[in-house]
Amino acid sequence: MSSLALTSILISSLCTSIGAMAVLMIKDVSHRGKDILLAYTAGIMVSASAYGLIPSALKLSNLTVLVVGILIGTLVLTIIESLIPHTDLNHSAKSSHSPNLLLFLIAMSIHNIPEGLSVGTSIISPAQELGPMVSFAIGLQNIPDGFLIALFLFTQGINPFKAILFSTITGLIELFAGIVGLLFGQSFEGIVPYALAFAAGSMLFVVYKELIPESHGDGNERAATFAFILGFITMVCLTDWFR
C-alpha cells in the first residue's frame, strides 16, 4: 500500500470535514429558517441519490441489482428505526438526543461506504488515470456532503463544533472503506453497485420519513417546498460541474 494511495483516500474523505466547516458561518436562525434549511438538505439528498448513486449503480450493474439494493436499504433503515426507541422531532430548537439524528447519521455513513470502496478499487485499477480522477471527484462531492450533515445537525440544536465532529466521523468511515477497497479491491468490485443502491434507498427513506415531515410541520410548507427544489438543483449542478 503506497503512501500516495493512502494520501489520496485521506484527502478525499477529509473533504467532508472541509464542507462541514461552512456551518460555522451560520448564526442562530428562526424556526421557519430551520424548516427551510431542512428541506434544502432533503433536496440535496434526493438529488445525490437520483442523479449520483442510482445512475452509478445502473452503470456498474443492471436494473435488478438497483431495485434489490434500494429495497434492502429501505428495509434495513426501517428495521433500525423500529429498534430505536422513537420520539418524533419536537418542533423546537432543541432535540439533540432525538433518534432521528441517529437515523440520519446512519444513512449518511452508509452512503460513504460505497464511495470509499470506489476510491480504493479505482486506485488499484490497471487504468492509472482512474484513481486520481475518482478520488478528486468523490472528494469534491464530499464537500457539500459534509455541509449537509453539519447543517442538519445544526438545525436540530447541535453545537456547530460537534456537528463538524460528527461530519468528520462519517468521513472517517469513508476512509476505512477506501482502505478496504485498496487492500481487497478485486473482491469488492461486485459489491459496489449493490452498496450504491443500498445507500440510495437508505437516504430516500430518511428524506421521506423524517426530513420532509419535519420541514412541513409548522405551516412553512410552501417555503420548504421551494427550498427542497433549490437543494435538488444545487446538487445536480455540483454533480454536473465536477464530473
UniProtKB/TrEMBL annotation:
Q: Which residues cross the membrane?
A: 6-24, 36-54, 60-80, 101-124, 130-154, 163-185, 191-211, 223-242
Membrane-topology annotation of the record? Multi-pass membrane protein
State the compartments where it is located: Cell membrane
Specify the domain of life of the species encoding this protein.
Bacteria
> Where is it mostly found?
membrane
Keywords, in A-Z order: Cell membrane, Membrane, Transmembrane, Transmembrane helix, Zinc
The yes or no answer to whether the keyword DNA-binding is present is no
One of the Pfam families matching this protein, by short name: Zip
Q: Does the keyword tRNA processing apply?
A: no
Give this protein's Gene Ontology molecular function annotations. zinc ion transmembrane transporter activity
A cellular component term from Gene Ontology for this protein is: plasma membrane
Q: Which residues form a coiled coil?
A: none
Question: Its family?
Answer: Belongs to the ZIP transporter (TC 2.A.5) family.
Q: Which PANTHER family match?
A: ZINC TRANSPORTER ZIP11, ZINC/IRON TRANSPORTER
In Swiss-Prot or TrEMBL terms, this protein is called ZIP family metal transporter
Q: Which organism is it from?
A: Ureibacillus yapensis
